[in-house]
Specification:
Mean pLDDT: 96
CATH class: Alpha Beta
Low-confidence stretches: none
Number of helices: 8
Number of domains: 1
Strand order of the largest sheet: 5-9-8-6-10
Radius of gyration: 16 Å
CATH superfamily: Nucleoside phosphorylase domain
Number of strands: 11
CATH architecture: 3-Layer(aba) Sandwich
Amino acid sequence: MSLHISASQGEIAPIVLMPGDPLRAKYIADNMLDDVKQVSQTRNAFYFTGKYKGKAITIGASGMGCPSIGIYSYELYKDYNVDCIIRIGTCGSYLTGLKLYEVINVDVACSESTYARYAFDIGGHNIKHQGKAFDIINDTAKTLSVPIRSGPVHSSDVFYRADTALPEIVIECNCMAVEMEAFALFANAKYLNKTAATLLTVSDVLPTKEHISADQRERSLDKMINLALESCLKM
């Protein structure tokens, strides 16, 4: 066990898919994995281990924000010897040309967060994906004829802002969308020499205020989820 995950040693697979929402983790486990076992429910952050086309995979929730995914992903890497974590989440598009339900494979996470600096003395505001998962996802998307975008995203520490103007880092880094977790995941993987990628489905188009519902965020992301699962077969 770790401090925040109650699975026993051997119950977490080397590859973990990590949505933010524990109910999304349960949806994936119930509908897309075989031989599933729930291995942790501490703080209702559900973790399930099962098989996808014969390959062992764990699905587990990260919660929201850099501090939360920072804790869970660190413990998975360090205490359970996980090799690769792929975050599968939603994002808000900064671009009108990036539509609802489009999928992004994050190249670089850009953030004002101090997480990486104070945790590991990693300087700067940009951290790339780590390891081979990013390229495997791109190759798998081509094989499956799944259109995806790749580029930098903004990992914000805040959801609500008094100032509605675009944050400076978004302009400086030419960020295409905003989410809240990739920066910390990439920082942990960089520090621990592990693999990390982030796949995002556009749930909001910020300039036009288009958005998908809370239920759709939980259950209508199958294109991204299937891409992540198929990519796991090549790792």
